[in-house]
Each structure stands twice: as C-alpha cells, then as structure tokens.
Amino acid sequence: MKAVVCQNAELTVRELPDPVPQQGQVLLKVLRCGICGSDLHMRHHCDHMGELMARTGYHHFPKASQPLVMGHEFCGEVLEQGAGTSRKLKTGTRVCAMPVMRQGSEIDMIGLSARSPGAYAERVVVAESMLMPIPNGLPSDQAALTEPMAVALHAVNRSQITRKDVAIVVGCGPVGLAVVAMLKARGVATVVASDFSPKRRELARLCGADVVINPAENSPFDQPERYGFLDGLPGLLELGVGTREQLGKLPLPWWHVWRLAEKLGLQPKRPIIFECVGVPGMLQRIIEGAPLLSRIMVVGYCMEPDRIEPAMSNNKEIDLRFCMGYSPLEYRDALHLMAEGKVQCAHLVTGTVGLDGVATAFDALRDPERHAKILVDPASLACQP
C-alpha cells in the first residue's frame, strides 16, 4: 500500500507492505484522515515530544530517525477482520476508531508509535474494541473530525461549565474552534472567541461564537462588569464586607443564611477561560487579564518551559486546570453529537489532499488565513489543499 512516511523531518510517499489484522484487530480502508497540530509538531520536534511522553510513563514514542506513519484523526471502511473478532460489522461498514491499540501487555497510540502506524495511508489496522459505526449517514469529512471534537468535549467536561456561565475561548485554531462548537452544543449561552486572524474569527462565528474579538483591538477580558464579574480585589472585598453587613440586618444568624446561600450555589460570577494557543507567555497573559475567580482550562499544548507568576493567581483565586485527550465514552459522544446535528463543525474543514499532497498541506497550515483543518483522502490525486 501507499503511505506517507515521516523520517528525519522529511515527508515522503512510500510503498509499504500491506498491513494484516492480528488477533482482535480490523483492517480499514482509510476514507479521510485529519492533519493534527500534534503531527506538525511531530515532524520537527519528535524527539522532544518523546522525551516529554517518557516522563509520564509512555516509552514507545518514535525517534525522529525512525520511519513513522502519522495520522490519528480518521474514519474508514471495514475491509478485513482478524482472528478472535466478533465480526458484528459487515465488510464495507463506515466506522471511526479511537486511535489506540494493544501491543501485548502495552497500549500504543496509533500514529504516535512506530509499531502502530497511523492513517496517512491507504489502509490502517485498528482494535475492534475501539470501532464505532458512523451513525445517521454522517459524511466522512465530518466523521474524521471525531478525534479533535472528542478532545474539545473532554476539555468542556473537565471545565464543569454550566449553561449560565460565560465561556471565553482564547485562540481559534482547530482545537479552539472545536471547543467553541462543543460549548454551544452544551447549551452555553455566551461564548466569546478571541483570535488575531480574521479568517479564524469568521470560522468561530460559523461554529456558534456569540461574541468575536480581535485581541489587537480589544481584550476579551475588557468590561468585566458587562457580565457581572468582579472588577479587581476591591470588588471581592466589597462583596464580602457588603454581604456581611446586609445579612446582619436579618432576624436570623447571618452565618446560617450565608451557608444556605452557598449550598444553593449562590456564588460570584466568573468566566470559564479556554486557553487554546499553547505558546510560552500566553498563560501568564491570561492570568494577568482574567477576572477574579476565573477558571482557566489549559487546552493548548505548550511543549516549551514557561513561566507564570503564582502570586497573581493567588490574588485572583484563579482555578487552573490542564487537560489532554479524552475517554472512549467522550469519543463516542462526540461522534454522535455530530451525527445528530448538535455540533456545528463542518466549517473546520478548509481543504483536502491526497497522499502526494500531505507535505504541501503541512506547509499550508502555517497560514491561519488559508486553512484550519486539512483532510487527507488517500483516494484523491489532489496535491494542493
């Protein structure tokens, strides 16, 4: 079969042996595969990413010198089923598959391991247990977005956001746009999106953002009073002292009323901020600008050492949460949310190439005014996205 191989930062189309499904595995014909930001990083920073993964216990990340077939955002068609599979899905069934694979007693991440090749190829082997039929005739272009949409769903779930909260999404690349779409699917009434790129701001609107901001002109944190957020430490002090003064006028012990109010969920308003940029300095800038009591979800994947000023987070009582990946349930839910028309994500796809166009697509993705998400269609002859 033909596949795109990355080796020493070079992307080339090669003829590889046909993959054969083993025990509990299924062979898919690749219909579409998304080019992920992590793939762009992998090309030039493979060894660094591997070192980071090894520090968290994952020791099968490839070396830059090893031939690697990337691609973990894919959908395909069932071709062949290995021994020990249930064969519940007929040949020709369109499916998505969570990109993880058992290798003996270990688990690999497909497309992020030299021994578990990804879907920049005509065919890919996956675990039967990770297969999910594509429901409701969802087009393959959108089904291939299941993986990044699951990442966004996981971030939204970890944020514990409610419909009444204000969400601020900083950075409208593919991950930020997916977060915007998932927030609106969750029913969040006010989603603010911020990005320097006019193209990405327009895509944010199409994904459902209620307010779109150019940070070169305005900060997404300006006018906190517009949403009822506390304006600085004096506002927090006034809230505490003023509340105590008012409760003291009641014919009840003020502390009982205060505890009851907290049990009923009466708390100061604060935004849920999704950092979706992942470059050094961004987290500190958000901490500086965020209103008091903000919850910051770090979705952007910054692989370089960074510095923050913890005392500023203390002063503002910032809640800082990091996230990565998703669960099988979140992957399944993301797929079904798209198939049920609850997620506006079709606009993320801005181009498609064949295997011969993958290297060109990697270069094209450097320009935010041209592209957000480019898909690989192994059956296509297109060399330009």
What brief labels describe this structure?
385 residues; seven-stranded mixed β-sheet; Quinone Oxidoreductase, Chain A, domain 1; alpha/beta; single chain; elongated; six-stranded parallel β-sheet; Rossmann fold
Set out the fold topology.
Layout: E1 2-7, E2 10-15, E3 25-34, H1 37-54, E4 73-81, E5 94-97, E6 100-103, E7 106-109, E8 123-127, E9 131-133, H2 140-143, H3 146-159, E10 166-170, H4 174-186, E11 190-194, H5 198-206, E12 211-213, H6 233-247, H7 254-263, E13 272-275, H8 282-289, E14 295-298, H9 310-316, E15 319-322, H10 328-339, E16 349-353, H11 358-364, E17 373-376
Parallel strand pairs: 10-11, 10-13, 11-12, 13-14, 14-15, 16-17
Antiparallel strand pairs: 1-2, 3-4, 3-8, 3-17, 4-5, 5-9, 6-7
Helix pairs in contact: 3-4, 3-10
Protein name: Zinc-binding dehydrogenase
Keywords: Oxidoreductase
GO molecular function, one term: oxidoreductase activity
Give the termini separation: 22 Å
The number of helical elements comes to: 11
Strand content: 15-25%
User: Topology as H/E string?
Assistant: EEEHEEEEEEHHEHEHEHHEHEHEHEHE
- Strand-pairing-aware structural class: alpha/beta
How would a textbook summarize the main sheet? Answer: 7 strands, mixed
Named at the architecture level, the CATH assignment of the largest domain is: Alpha-Beta Complex
Please tell me the total number of domains. Answer: 2
CATH class of the largest domain: Alpha Beta
Number of DSSP E strands: 17
User: Could you tell me the radius of gyration in angstroms?
Assistant: 23 Å
CATH topology of the largest domain: Quinone Oxidoreductase, Chain A, domain 1
- Given as residue ranges, the uncertain stretches (5+ residues, pLDDT < 50) are none
